[in-house]
Amino acid sequence: MKVIVDRVAFAEAVNLVSSAAAVRSPKVQLTCVKIVCKKTGGVGEVVLEATDAEVAMRLSLSQVDVSKPGEILIPADKLRSIISAEENDSTLTISADGEACTIKGSDSNFKIFGYDTAEFPPIPDFAASVTGSGDTAKAKATLTHPAGSLAELVSRTIFATARETSRYAINGVLFKRDGKRLELAATDGRRLALARANLSGGEKDAKPVQCIVPSKALGMLQKLIKEHEEPVQIAITETQILFSFGTAANPGRAVLVSNLVEGAFPPYEDVIPKDNDKKVTFDRDVVISAVKRAALLTNEESRGVRLAFHAKDKQLELSSRAPEQGEANIRVDLAGYDGEDMEIGFNPAFLTDALKVMHDPQVIMELKASGKPGLIKSGSDFLYVVMPVNLT
Protein backbone atom coordinates (compact mmCIF):
# COMPACT_ATOMS: atom_id res chain seq x y z
CA MET A 1 0.00 0.00 0.00
CA LYS A 2 1.23 3.48 -0.86
CA VAL A 3 -0.64 6.78 -1.00
CA ILE A 4 0.09 10.52 -0.92
CA VAL A 5 -2.50 12.52 1.05
CA ASP A 6 -3.28 16.18 1.65
CA ARG A 7 -2.19 16.52 5.28
CA VAL A 8 -4.89 18.98 6.39
CA ALA A 9 -7.77 16.97 4.87
CA PHE A 10 -6.31 13.71 6.14
CA ALA A 11 -5.79 15.12 9.64
CA GLU A 12 -9.41 16.28 9.78
CA ALA A 13 -10.64 12.87 8.68
CA VAL A 14 -8.39 11.02 11.14
CA ASN A 15 -9.55 13.22 14.03
CA LEU A 16 -13.18 12.53 13.15
CA VAL A 17 -12.94 8.79 12.60
CA SER A 18 -10.69 8.16 15.61
CA SER A 19 -13.45 9.50 17.86
CA ALA A 20 -15.22 6.20 17.13
CA ALA A 21 -12.26 4.13 18.30
CA ALA A 22 -12.05 2.84 21.86
CA VAL A 23 -9.56 4.62 24.13
CA ARG A 24 -8.79 1.35 25.91
CA SER A 25 -10.00 -2.16 25.13
CA PRO A 26 -8.84 -5.73 25.72
CA LYS A 27 -9.35 -6.11 21.96
CA VAL A 28 -6.63 -3.83 20.56
CA GLN A 29 -8.25 -3.72 17.11
CA LEU A 30 -10.99 -1.53 18.60
CA THR A 31 -8.38 1.13 19.47
CA CYS A 32 -7.24 1.32 15.85
CA VAL A 33 -8.07 3.04 12.57
CA LYS A 34 -8.27 0.93 9.45
CA ILE A 35 -6.90 2.62 6.32
CA VAL A 36 -8.01 1.20 2.97
CA CYS A 37 -6.51 2.57 -0.27
CA LYS A 38 -8.39 1.95 -3.52
CA LYS A 39 -8.01 2.89 -7.17
CA THR A 40 -10.97 2.69 -9.52
CA GLY A 41 -10.70 3.82 -13.12
CA GLY A 42 -7.53 5.73 -12.34
CA VAL A 43 -9.17 7.61 -9.44
CA GLY A 44 -7.72 7.11 -5.96
CA GLU A 45 -9.68 6.90 -2.75
CA VAL A 46 -8.78 6.38 0.91
CA VAL A 47 -11.38 4.97 3.30
CA LEU A 48 -10.89 5.32 7.07
CA GLU A 49 -12.81 3.12 9.51
CA ALA A 50 -12.98 2.83 13.30
CA THR A 51 -15.32 1.27 15.86
CA ASP A 52 -15.53 0.61 19.58
CA ALA A 53 -18.17 -2.10 19.01
CA GLU A 54 -20.96 0.33 20.03
CA VAL A 55 -20.51 3.04 17.40
CA ALA A 56 -18.66 2.91 14.08
CA MET A 57 -17.60 5.43 11.46
CA ARG A 58 -16.43 5.21 7.86
CA LEU A 59 -15.00 8.24 6.01
CA SER A 60 -14.00 8.52 2.38
CA LEU A 61 -11.26 10.86 1.07
CA SER A 62 -10.71 11.73 -2.58
CA GLN A 63 -7.83 14.25 -2.21
CA VAL A 64 -5.32 11.41 -2.56
CA ASP A 65 -2.83 9.91 -4.99
CA VAL A 66 -2.91 6.12 -4.66
CA SER A 67 0.07 4.42 -6.31
CA LYS A 68 -0.45 1.03 -4.65
CA PRO A 69 -3.81 -0.15 -3.25
CA GLY A 70 -3.88 -1.94 0.07
CA GLU A 71 -4.88 -1.66 3.71
CA ILE A 72 -3.43 -1.36 7.20
CA LEU A 73 -4.76 -1.32 10.78
CA ILE A 74 -2.86 0.98 13.15
CA PRO A 75 -3.41 2.51 16.63
CA ALA A 76 -5.65 5.59 16.41
CA ASP A 77 -3.79 7.63 19.04
CA LYS A 78 -0.39 7.22 17.35
CA LEU A 79 -1.78 7.98 13.89
CA ARG A 80 -3.59 11.08 15.15
CA SER A 81 -0.53 12.38 17.03
CA ILE A 82 1.85 11.95 14.09
CA ILE A 83 -0.45 13.49 11.48
CA SER A 84 -1.15 16.47 13.76
CA ALA A 85 2.54 17.00 14.54
CA GLU A 86 3.52 17.18 10.85
CA GLU A 87 1.95 20.63 10.56
CA ASN A 88 4.67 22.05 8.29
CA ASP A 89 4.00 19.54 5.51
CA SER A 90 1.29 20.03 2.90
CA THR A 91 1.34 16.35 1.92
CA LEU A 92 2.34 13.08 3.58
CA THR A 93 3.25 9.73 2.08
CA ILE A 94 1.74 6.70 3.82
CA SER A 95 2.82 3.20 2.94
CA ALA A 96 2.39 -0.24 4.43
CA ASP A 97 4.36 -3.45 4.30
CA GLY A 98 2.56 -6.26 6.04
CA GLU A 99 1.47 -4.96 9.44
CA ALA A 100 3.98 -2.08 9.51
CA CYS A 101 2.97 1.43 8.43
CA THR A 102 5.41 4.17 7.38
CA ILE A 103 4.47 7.87 7.38
CA LYS A 104 6.91 10.19 5.59
CA GLY A 105 7.06 13.98 5.67
CA SER A 106 9.58 16.33 4.08
CA ASP A 107 12.08 15.79 6.90
CA SER A 108 10.58 12.92 8.93
CA ASN A 109 9.98 9.20 8.78
CA PHE A 110 7.71 7.36 11.24
CA LYS A 111 7.20 3.62 11.41
CA ILE A 112 4.16 2.27 13.32
CA PHE A 113 3.48 -1.38 13.97
CA GLY A 114 -0.13 -2.32 13.38
CA TYR A 115 -2.32 -5.42 13.33
CA ASP A 116 -3.91 -7.86 10.92
CA THR A 117 -6.81 -6.11 9.16
CA ALA A 118 -8.72 -9.41 9.06
CA GLU A 119 -9.22 -9.09 12.81
CA PHE A 120 -10.99 -5.73 12.48
CA PRO A 121 -14.78 -6.12 12.92
CA PRO A 122 -16.73 -5.35 9.74
CA ILE A 123 -18.76 -2.13 9.71
CA PRO A 124 -22.35 -2.53 8.45
CA ASP A 125 -22.92 -1.40 4.88
CA PHE A 126 -25.61 1.26 4.53
CA ALA A 127 -26.95 0.09 1.15
CA ALA A 128 -27.13 -3.51 2.36
CA SER A 129 -29.12 -2.41 5.42
CA VAL A 130 -31.61 -0.53 3.24
CA THR A 131 -32.18 -3.40 0.80
CA GLY A 132 -31.59 -6.29 3.19
CA SER A 133 -29.10 -7.90 0.79
CA GLY A 134 -26.80 -10.75 1.75
CA ASP A 135 -26.84 -11.65 5.44
CA THR A 136 -27.90 -8.13 6.43
CA ALA A 137 -31.38 -7.68 7.87
CA LYS A 138 -33.52 -5.12 6.04
CA ALA A 139 -34.09 -1.82 7.88
CA LYS A 140 -37.57 -1.38 9.31
CA ALA A 141 -37.55 2.31 8.32
CA THR A 142 -35.56 4.58 6.01
CA LEU A 143 -35.77 8.34 5.63
CA THR A 144 -33.82 11.32 4.30
CA HIS A 145 -33.41 14.74 5.91
CA PRO A 146 -31.20 17.81 5.31
CA ALA A 147 -28.05 17.78 7.44
CA GLY A 148 -28.55 21.30 8.83
CA SER A 149 -32.07 20.63 10.09
CA LEU A 150 -30.97 17.31 11.59
CA ALA A 151 -28.09 19.03 13.39
CA GLU A 152 -30.50 21.60 14.80
CA LEU A 153 -32.84 18.91 16.12
CA VAL A 154 -29.91 17.22 17.83
CA SER A 155 -28.51 20.43 19.35
CA ARG A 156 -31.95 21.31 20.73
CA THR A 157 -32.26 18.02 22.61
CA ILE A 158 -28.90 16.39 23.34
CA PHE A 159 -28.08 18.75 26.22
CA ALA A 160 -31.06 17.42 28.22
CA THR A 161 -29.96 13.77 28.20
CA ALA A 162 -29.04 12.08 31.47
CA ARG A 163 -25.42 11.59 32.48
CA GLU A 164 -24.22 8.48 34.31
CA THR A 165 -27.55 7.04 35.34
CA SER A 166 -28.69 3.45 35.70
CA ARG A 167 -31.80 4.36 33.68
CA TYR A 168 -30.11 3.68 30.34
CA ALA A 169 -33.15 4.65 28.29
CA ILE A 170 -32.66 8.34 29.17
CA ASN A 171 -28.93 8.28 28.37
CA GLY A 172 -29.88 8.85 24.74
CA VAL A 173 -32.24 10.86 22.57
CA LEU A 174 -35.58 9.46 21.42
CA PHE A 175 -35.73 9.48 17.61
CA LYS A 176 -39.34 9.23 16.41
CA ARG A 177 -40.73 9.26 12.87
CA ASP A 178 -44.46 9.41 12.26
CA GLY A 179 -45.52 10.02 8.68
CA LYS A 180 -43.88 13.24 7.49
CA ARG A 181 -42.99 14.31 11.03
CA LEU A 182 -39.64 13.79 12.73
CA GLU A 183 -39.42 14.30 16.50
CA LEU A 184 -36.48 14.15 18.90
CA ALA A 185 -36.89 14.15 22.69
CA ALA A 186 -34.48 14.00 25.63
CA THR A 187 -34.84 14.06 29.41
CA ASP A 188 -32.76 13.56 32.53
CA GLY A 189 -35.78 13.34 34.83
CA ARG A 190 -35.66 17.02 35.79
CA ARG A 191 -36.23 18.55 32.36
CA LEU A 192 -37.48 17.60 28.92
CA ALA A 193 -36.43 19.00 25.54
CA LEU A 194 -38.62 18.27 22.52
CA ALA A 195 -37.84 19.35 18.93
CA ARG A 196 -39.82 18.66 15.76
CA ALA A 197 -39.39 19.07 12.00
CA ASN A 198 -41.17 18.10 8.80
CA LEU A 199 -39.32 15.45 6.81
CA SER A 200 -38.26 16.63 3.37
CA GLY A 201 -39.15 13.32 1.71
CA GLY A 202 -41.29 11.59 4.28
CA GLU A 203 -44.30 9.55 3.34
CA LYS A 204 -47.53 10.89 4.76
CA ASP A 205 -48.78 7.46 5.75
CA ALA A 206 -45.42 5.94 6.72
CA LYS A 207 -45.58 3.52 9.62
CA PRO A 208 -44.52 5.14 12.93
CA VAL A 209 -41.12 4.05 14.20
CA GLN A 210 -38.97 5.12 17.14
CA CYS A 211 -35.64 4.28 18.74
CA ILE A 212 -33.23 5.69 21.32
CA VAL A 213 -29.89 6.90 19.97
CA PRO A 214 -26.88 7.23 22.33
CA SER A 215 -25.65 10.76 23.04
CA LYS A 216 -22.11 9.83 21.94
CA ALA A 217 -23.30 8.89 18.46
CA LEU A 218 -25.30 12.10 18.05
CA GLY A 219 -22.32 14.18 19.17
CA MET A 220 -20.29 12.51 16.42
CA LEU A 221 -23.13 13.09 13.96
CA GLN A 222 -22.92 16.84 14.57
CA LYS A 223 -19.20 16.86 13.74
CA LEU A 224 -19.78 15.07 10.43
CA ILE A 225 -22.12 17.74 9.09
CA LYS A 226 -20.45 20.06 6.58
CA GLU A 227 -23.16 21.58 4.39
CA HIS A 228 -26.59 22.61 5.64
CA GLU A 229 -28.44 21.24 2.61
CA GLU A 230 -26.49 17.99 2.25
CA PRO A 231 -28.96 15.08 2.44
CA VAL A 232 -28.52 12.56 5.23
CA GLN A 233 -29.99 9.13 4.62
CA ILE A 234 -31.10 7.29 7.75
CA ALA A 235 -31.84 3.60 8.20
CA ILE A 236 -33.24 2.12 11.41
CA THR A 237 -32.93 -1.60 12.12
CA GLU A 238 -33.99 -3.56 15.18
CA THR A 239 -30.68 -2.93 16.93
CA GLN A 240 -28.91 -0.12 15.07
CA ILE A 241 -29.29 3.26 13.37
CA LEU A 242 -27.21 4.16 10.31
CA PHE A 243 -26.55 7.64 8.89
CA SER A 244 -25.11 8.12 5.41
CA PHE A 245 -23.85 11.55 4.29
CA GLY A 246 -23.29 12.60 0.71
CA THR A 247 -24.58 14.28 -2.40
CA ALA A 248 -25.03 12.92 -5.92
CA ALA A 249 -21.54 14.19 -6.72
CA ASN A 250 -20.01 12.70 -3.56
CA PRO A 251 -22.20 9.82 -2.33
CA GLY A 252 -21.37 8.01 0.87
CA ARG A 253 -18.60 10.37 1.94
CA ALA A 254 -19.31 9.38 5.54
CA VAL A 255 -21.28 6.66 7.30
CA LEU A 256 -22.04 6.56 11.01
CA VAL A 257 -23.46 3.43 12.64
CA SER A 258 -24.60 3.16 16.24
CA ASN A 259 -26.15 0.50 18.42
CA LEU A 260 -29.47 1.62 19.89
CA VAL A 261 -30.12 2.15 23.59
CA GLU A 262 -32.23 -0.64 25.02
CA GLY A 263 -35.27 0.04 27.16
CA ALA A 264 -38.44 2.12 26.97
CA PHE A 265 -38.27 5.90 26.82
CA PRO A 266 -40.49 7.59 29.45
CA PRO A 267 -43.98 8.69 28.26
CA TYR A 268 -42.83 12.28 27.87
CA GLU A 269 -46.16 13.60 26.59
CA ASP A 270 -47.54 13.05 30.10
CA VAL A 271 -45.16 15.56 31.70
CA ILE A 272 -45.91 18.44 29.33
CA PRO A 273 -48.11 20.86 31.33
CA LYS A 274 -51.54 21.44 29.85
CA ASP A 275 -53.11 23.80 32.42
CA ASN A 276 -50.53 26.53 33.01
CA ASP A 277 -52.45 29.80 33.47
CA LYS A 278 -49.62 32.35 33.53
CA LYS A 279 -47.99 33.39 30.28
CA VAL A 280 -44.71 35.30 30.08
CA THR A 281 -43.23 36.78 26.90
CA PHE A 282 -39.64 37.97 27.04
CA ASP A 283 -36.55 38.81 25.02
CA ARG A 284 -34.33 35.73 24.89
CA ASP A 285 -30.98 37.55 25.03
CA VAL A 286 -32.05 39.85 27.86
CA VAL A 287 -33.14 36.95 30.07
CA ILE A 288 -30.08 34.84 29.24
CA SER A 289 -27.88 37.71 30.38
CA ALA A 290 -29.92 38.24 33.55
CA VAL A 291 -29.89 34.53 34.47
CA LYS A 292 -26.13 34.27 33.93
CA ARG A 293 -25.51 37.28 36.16
CA ALA A 294 -27.80 36.03 38.89
CA ALA A 295 -26.07 32.64 38.76
CA LEU A 296 -22.75 34.25 39.71
CA LEU A 297 -23.79 34.17 43.35
CA THR A 298 -24.98 30.60 43.63
CA ASN A 299 -23.07 27.58 44.92
CA GLU A 300 -23.53 23.86 45.54
CA GLU A 301 -25.89 24.53 48.45
CA SER A 302 -27.94 27.22 46.69
CA ARG A 303 -28.02 26.32 43.03
CA GLY A 304 -31.33 27.97 42.31
CA VAL A 305 -32.17 31.45 41.04
CA ARG A 306 -35.44 32.98 42.22
CA LEU A 307 -37.67 34.45 39.51
CA ALA A 308 -40.29 36.91 40.74
CA PHE A 309 -42.84 37.98 38.12
CA HIS A 310 -44.58 41.32 38.69
CA ALA A 311 -47.78 41.72 36.70
CA LYS A 312 -48.38 45.43 37.37
CA ASP A 313 -45.15 46.75 35.86
CA LYS A 314 -44.44 43.69 33.68
CA GLN A 315 -41.05 43.08 35.20
CA LEU A 316 -39.02 40.03 36.14
CA GLU A 317 -36.84 40.19 39.23
CA LEU A 318 -34.08 37.60 39.48
CA SER A 319 -32.30 37.05 42.78
CA SER A 320 -29.80 34.62 44.22
CA ARG A 321 -27.92 34.18 47.46
CA ALA A 322 -24.85 32.20 48.45
CA PRO A 323 -24.10 31.83 52.17
CA GLU A 324 -21.00 33.76 53.24
CA GLN A 325 -20.53 35.06 49.69
CA GLY A 326 -23.29 37.54 48.97
CA GLU A 327 -26.42 38.03 46.92
CA ALA A 328 -27.54 39.30 43.53
CA ASN A 329 -30.68 41.13 42.40
CA ILE A 330 -31.44 41.91 38.75
CA ARG A 331 -34.55 43.43 37.16
CA VAL A 332 -35.54 43.18 33.52
CA ASP A 333 -38.58 44.29 31.55
CA LEU A 334 -40.92 41.70 30.06
CA ALA A 335 -42.55 41.98 26.65
CA GLY A 336 -45.72 40.65 28.23
CA TYR A 337 -47.10 38.98 31.34
CA ASP A 338 -50.58 37.55 31.69
CA GLY A 339 -51.39 36.31 35.19
CA GLU A 340 -50.98 37.04 38.86
CA ASP A 341 -47.69 37.81 40.61
CA MET A 342 -45.71 34.69 41.43
CA GLU A 343 -42.26 33.46 42.44
CA ILE A 344 -40.50 30.30 41.32
CA GLY A 345 -36.96 28.92 41.51
CA PHE A 346 -35.01 27.27 38.70
CA ASN A 347 -31.56 25.84 38.20
CA PRO A 348 -29.96 28.65 36.13
CA ALA A 349 -27.98 26.23 33.96
CA PHE A 350 -31.21 24.47 32.99
CA LEU A 351 -32.65 27.78 31.78
CA THR A 352 -29.61 28.94 29.79
CA ASP A 353 -29.12 25.48 28.22
CA ALA A 354 -32.52 25.77 26.58
CA LEU A 355 -32.54 29.49 25.80
CA LYS A 356 -29.24 29.40 23.91
CA VAL A 357 -30.54 26.81 21.39
CA MET A 358 -33.62 28.90 20.59
CA HIS A 359 -33.51 31.10 17.50
CA ASP A 360 -36.61 33.26 17.96
CA PRO A 361 -35.76 36.55 19.72
CA GLN A 362 -39.00 36.35 21.69
CA VAL A 363 -39.66 33.36 23.92
CA ILE A 364 -42.81 32.27 25.75
CA MET A 365 -42.83 30.75 29.23
CA GLU A 366 -45.97 29.28 30.76
CA LEU A 367 -46.28 28.76 34.53
CA LYS A 368 -48.81 27.43 37.03
CA ALA A 369 -47.37 27.67 40.57
CA SER A 370 -44.05 27.71 42.39
CA GLY A 371 -44.06 23.93 42.81
CA LYS A 372 -45.17 23.09 39.27
CA PRO A 373 -42.98 22.69 36.15
CA GLY A 374 -42.46 25.57 33.76
CA LEU A 375 -42.98 25.28 30.01
CA ILE A 376 -40.80 27.25 27.59
CA LYS A 377 -41.71 27.50 23.90
CA SER A 378 -39.92 28.80 20.82
CA GLY A 379 -42.03 28.79 17.68
CA SER A 380 -44.13 25.68 17.01
CA ASP A 381 -41.24 23.22 16.77
CA PHE A 382 -39.51 23.39 20.15
CA LEU A 383 -40.67 23.14 23.74
CA TYR A 384 -38.88 22.63 27.02
CA VAL A 385 -40.25 21.49 30.35
CA VAL A 386 -38.19 22.28 33.45
CA MET A 387 -38.86 21.32 37.05
CA PRO A 388 -38.55 24.04 39.72
CA VAL A 389 -36.14 23.93 42.66
CA ASN A 390 -36.99 24.58 46.29
CA LEU A 391 -35.49 27.87 47.49
CA THR A 392 -36.59 27.74 51.13
Architecture overview:
This protein has helices spanning 7-18, 76-85, 126-131, 147-155, 215-224, 284-294, 348-355, and strands at 2-6, 32-40, 43-51, 55-61, 64-68, 70-75, 91-97, 100-104, 109-113, 141-146, 172-178, 181-187, 191-198, 209-214, 231-236, 240-245, 254-259, 278-283, 305-310, 315-322, 326-333, 336-338, 342-346, 362-367, 374-378, 382-386. The protein folds into three domains: 2-119, DNA Polymerase III, Chain A, domain 2, CATH 3.10.150.10; 126-269, DNA Polymerase III, Chain A, domain 2 (Roll); 272-386, DNA Polymerase III, subunit A, domain 2 (DNA Polymerase III, Chain A, domain 2, Roll), CATH 3.10.150. 37% of the residues are buried. Strand 16 and strand 17 form a beta hairpin. Helices cover 17% and strands 41% of the residues. The protein starts with a strand and ends in a 6-residue tail after the last strand. It has a nine-stranded antiparallel sheet. The protein has an eight-stranded antiparallel sheet with strand order 6-2-3-4-17-16-15-10. The chain is an alpha+beta fold and 392 residues long. Helix 6 (284-294) packs antiparallel against helix 7. The model has no long low-confidence stretch (mean pLDDT 92). The chain contains seven helices and 26 strands.
Task: List the topology elements.
Blueprint: E1 2-6, H1 7-18, E2 32-40, E3 43-51, E4 55-61, E5 64-68, E6 70-75, H2 76-85, E7 91-97, E8 100-104, E9 109-113, H3 126-131, E10 141-146, H4 147-155, E11 172-178, E12 181-187, E13 191-198, E14 209-214, H5 215-224, E15 231-236, E16 240-245, E17 254-259, E18 278-283, H6 284-294, E19 305-310, E20 315-322, E21 326-333, E22 336-338, E23 342-346, H7 348-355, E24 362-367, E25 374-378, E26 382-386
Antiparallel strand pairs: 1-5, 1-7, 2-3, 2-6, 3-4, 4-17, 7-8, 8-9, 10-15, 11-12, 11-14, 12-13, 13-26, 15-16, 16-17, 18-22, 18-24, 19-20, 19-23, 20-21, 24-25, 25-26
Helix pairs in contact: 1-2, 6-7
